[in-house]
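Collaborator request, handled under Task 6.
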Amino acid sequence: MIEAMSNGLPVAGYNVPGPKDVVEPGVTGFIDDDLKQAIEQCPQLDRKVIQQQAREKWSWGNCYDILHTNFHA
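Structure tokens returned to the collaborator:
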């Protein structure tokens, strides 16, 4: 999911842990219990915004901080 978003591709995911932790609904993709509905909404998103948001949020530094914070909690 992160690789797709970093390349400007929206992500459609089920409403479960994993996609819910990574996708920002309405910005980088859509989360829904009905995957078809989530997929159908994705084309409305701006791919440049998806790419920018993903690259900022999921940089190596941010990923390290998330891991470090949760590993030492």
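The cover message to the collaborator said: "The first helix runs from residue 2 to 6. The two ends are 25 Å apart (CA to CA). Please let us know whether this matches your experimental observations."
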